[in-house]
Design brief:
Distance between the termini: 21 Å
Order of helices and strands: HHHEEEEHHEEHHHEEEEEEE
Length: 263
């Protein structure tokens, strides 16, 4: 984009310079006109190099700006998309359809609670973490070009029938957590579910099953599926197992956002 803009600016500069020289009669007025033309072109060149392409932006370059960001990958690949805590986010490509990819963050990006209130049944639809993911996280982590390919999808939220816990209504999400069923579907074994935390998650205070304690330095991560008690959600343990659930206000469990992006 910048290269094409610089070339356009150079053409304008040359055209103005030739025009000024060609019209010069040797008078003070002509010299003044020539000087003004050169100065004007130089300013255009400086502006286009230091800013985006508002000056001298053609229809062709505008189309390239809109279509610039595109992900091309296969299931199992790692791709970089967006950023969090001033670091790019690495995503696993979990699934692919004719027109979309399902991405899951490779690591636990942060350590957060699902909701601060556990006095009643908390569903994915109502929880504070869902609001944060589709609000601050979405707005701060992705550029406008990246947002253009993020799809809004309908998520089905199944409750915990064994313990008669309601899963809540279906939701329209841009960013979400995997359900228990999706975790089991995409990760066939416990070892495949093992997740390591980012430095940000560790600084947030996430629980890490350290090697010094016989562990694997991995962290727990939330799902959006209801747990075995009101105000609880299922999560994945450090070694990949999935216990009955933990209270929503537990802030030492990490989050692995998921997102569908258009091809």
């Amino acid at each position: 984009m910048k290269r094409k803009i610089k070339e356009t600016a150079s053409v304008v500069f040359t055209a103005l310079l030739i025009s000024s020289i060609g019209g010069c009669s040797g008078s003070d007025k002509a010299e003044s006109t020539s000087t003004e033309s050169v100065t004007s072109a130089a300013v255009v060149t400086t502006v286009t190099e230091e800013t985006t392409s508002e000056v001298l932006l053609t229809e062709e370059t505008s189309e390239e700006t809109t279509e610039a960001f595109k992900i091309e990958a296969q299931v199992g690949d790692l791709v970089e998309f967006g950023s969090y805590a001033e670091k790019s986010i690495s995503w696993m490509v979990l699934d692919e359809t004719e027109d979309k990819y399902l991405l899951l963050s490779e690591k636990g990006l942060a350590s957060k609670y699902m909701d601060s209130d556990t006095s009643d049944v908390i569903t994915w639809e109502e929880c504070e973490l869902r609001q944060w993911l589709n609000g601050d996280f979405y707005n701060d982590s992705f550029s406008e070009q990246e947002k253009n390919i993020i799809a809004t999808v309908t998520n089905v939220n199944i409750g915990n029938e064994e313990y008669d816990i309601d899963g809540g209504n279906d939701t329209e999400d841009m960013i979400f957590l995997l359900s228990l069923e999706e975790v089991e579907n995409y990760f066939g074994s416990e070892s495949e579910r093992v997740c390591y935390p980012t430095d940000k998650a560790i600084s947030d205070g996430c629980y890490v099953f350290t090697r010094s304690n016989g562990g694997n330095d991995a962290a727990r991560w939330w799902t959006r599926t209801a747990g075995n008690m009101p105000g609880g959600f299922r999560y994945v343990e450090c070694e990949g197992g999935i216990p009955f659930g933990g209270l929503a206000d537990n802030s030492n469990i990490t989050i692995r956002p998921a997102v569908w992006v258009n091809k």
